[in-house]
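Narrative summary of target 7.
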Amino acid sequence: MMDVLKTLGKEADAEFTEKKSVFIGYAAPVSSEDEAREFVAKIKKKHADARHNVSAYVLSGGIMHSSDDGEPSGTAGVPVLEVIKKSGVVNAVVVVTRYFGGILLGAGGLVRAYSAAAKAAIDASGVVVYEKFDECAIKCSYGDYNDVLYRLSQFTVKVGQAAFDENVTVSFSVLKEERGRLDDEIAARFDGRYSVEKLGEKYDVR
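Modeled conformation, tokenized:
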């Protein structure tokens, strides 16, 4: 897993006209290649009357794909893919629909138009940065509970539910890069009586 996951914030679209051709860019976050393909299929169905529905996607596992959908090779799908890559996002799909306006744009014009539509869609979607967090728990006495919470608050931590039984078990997630310092702080403050148990990992917004 990557320590940082940069992806799109939401499904969004943007439209502009170039020499009477209408370009509609759609962008969306996805979690798998199947989801990316489903999104492409959905847009193609929505604009079944359009001459071209160009698409590209990039996934966190290194999978990349692009389709010119009938446009001259290299003038549509690859430029859209390059815009996605340049933005730095992964787990993202972009589809650009074109309604031909009767005026040929030429290879350079197509590249610029599809790139602009893809960028506009990504800008409309917004970029969200997720970082890796360790999901953890710590068991402490009732007397030390508030002190434990204070120690956790000194780090990038999101505190979850606490279970009150014979002792108190506090569930929380901590930014992975801060986990070692948190462990040292807990060990030093409580003379080694408590330790942090790792339960898993997840991506979250800082």
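The chain has five helices and ten strands.
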